[in-house]
Amino acid sequence: MIGIQATSIYEPALKETAVDLAGKTGIPEQVIVGKFGLYEKRIAPDHLHASDLAIAAGKKILKDMDPKAIDVVIYFGSPFKDYPIWTASSKAQYELGTSNAYSFEMMNVSSCFPIAVKVAKDMIRSDETINHILLIGGSKESMTIDYDNPRSRFMFNFADGGAAALVSRNATTSEILASSIITDGSFSGDVLVPGGGSVHPVSTEVVEKKLHYLDVPDPIRMKERLDPVSIPNFTRVIKQAVERSGAKLEDLKVLLPLHTKKSMFREMLESVGLKEEQAVYLTQNGHMSALDPCYGLHLAQRNGLLKNGDIAVIVSAGTGYTWAATAIRWGGPAS
Question: What residues does each domain of the chain span?
Answer without folding.
Answer: 3-171, 176-189+217-330
